[in-house]
Amino acid sequence: MRYDFDTVIDRNRTNSVKWEFMHLFAPDAPQGTLPLWVADMDFPCAEPIIAALHERVDKKIFGYSSPETGEYYRAVCSWYQHRFNWYVNSDDIVFSPGVVPALGYLLEILTEQGDGVIIQPPVYHPFSGKITACGRTIVNNPLLYRDGYYTMDFADLEKKARDPGNKVLLLCSPHNPVGRVWRREELQRLGRICLDNGLYIIADEIHYDLVRRGVAHTPLATLFPGEKHRIITATAPSKTFNLAGLQLSHIIIHDKELRSRWLCYVRDKISYGGPNPLSLAAVQAAYMYGEDWLEAVLAYLDDNVEFLRSYLRRHLPGVILPPPEGTYLAWLDFRAYNLPQDELFARMVRAGVLLENGIKYGREGEGFLRLNFACPRKILATALERMAGTLA
Ligand SMILES: Cc1ncc(COP(=O)(O)O)c(C=O)c1O
To answer: Which of 85, 146, 312, 330 is a plausible cystine mate for 371, CB 3.0–4.6 Å?
Structure first.
């Protein structure tokens, strides 16, 4: 089937945070600002998902709903199996409205006040937010950045994992914002260090489907079948199929006792009534019939990366683009321009392009901005022209 990702879809009057509410985050953004910030895509949703939503709406009643049907679990587990050769028992899946809230619940049930939680900055900023919100301690194991490429600092990780005060590693895989898709050997080494030192690993794999042509994502838990009870994996259809607003994610907890702690926590503290019926219909359809659409989106994203790379080479040669092996986020290194961080960010806003400020991801993000390229090429081209104009 042919898909049209070039047409710009008007997202006004859809309650879009990215478009309609950008002024709450960037009050100075002029009229007509292009929002390439928060991580959602400006592409029309897959037809089978839209059809499933229509069909469910036509059933007219939207009462309390449960995912406990064989069909739902078959759709989710077949996806893991088919895409990643990953066999997940449906009993091990629990639900959360989002991955970010799940990270908070998991820290509450896995750790005590003051315990250390290791993260690898620059990294998705809610990681540190969730750690401090529940009174745990952030322990940084910064990524190494050499020749425009990020790797893990295993020597430093080993030191931090050995500290008995540190209990959990929060892994971002694929990594937002630097775009790395960790190789098997890297994950094997990281996992070995953490597991040998008695740490739990929470693997946020929300971007698992969004990899470039020829790049493969490896779910961490598949590498440690005998020790997977200490690995919790957060997955979701929200990035893959652009369903973040439907708020349904799947958290895989292999350890039965831990799973019952999660269920008690969610029942007692959160009163989460379970997934809503529209989300269930959409997600089931996505995993059953959405693959063709996803492959088309991935090809379009690959081409957007090429477009971005070639534009930077020709018009903004001072900007370094660490290869976005995964995600639809480009982590742009503007340090050659020697601009104070606030000025760098504000200058783009004044030029009519809203990006994410690199400093949000840790002090390692100083001199960087994050650009979301999951948009029609026309929008990407205009944004880049504005950026080049303001830096000229
Ligand atoms: C690594 C990572 N985790 C979680 C999320 C958001 O998860 P959710 O919307 O399910 O809370 C994002 C969104 O960009 C992300 O990049």
So the answer is: 330
Instruction: Name the band, by pLDDT with cuts 50, 70 and 90, for residue 2.
Output: confident
97 CB less than 6 Å from ligand 1? no
Same domain, yes or no, for 348 and 277? no
Q: Which amino acid is at 236?
A: A
Ligand 1 centroid distance, CA of 268 (Å) = 24
Q: How far apart are CA 42 and CA 373, in angstroms?
A: 9
- This prediction has a pTM of 0.97
Nearest CA to ligand 1 atom 10: 98
- Domain contains 375: yes
pLDDT tens digits along 200-224: 999 999 999 999 999 999 999 999 9
- The Å distance, Cα 163 to ligand 1 centre, comes to 28
Q: Note down the domain range covering 382.
A: 22-45+291-391
Based on the fold, state whether residues 159 and 273 are members of the same structural domain: yes
CA 318 → CA 38, 313, 314, 333, distances in Å?
A: 25, 8, 10, 8
Tell me the H-state helices in the chain. 22-25, 47-57, 70-84, 99-110, 126-133, 154-162, 184-196, 220-223, 256-265, 277-289, 291-315, 341-350, 377-391
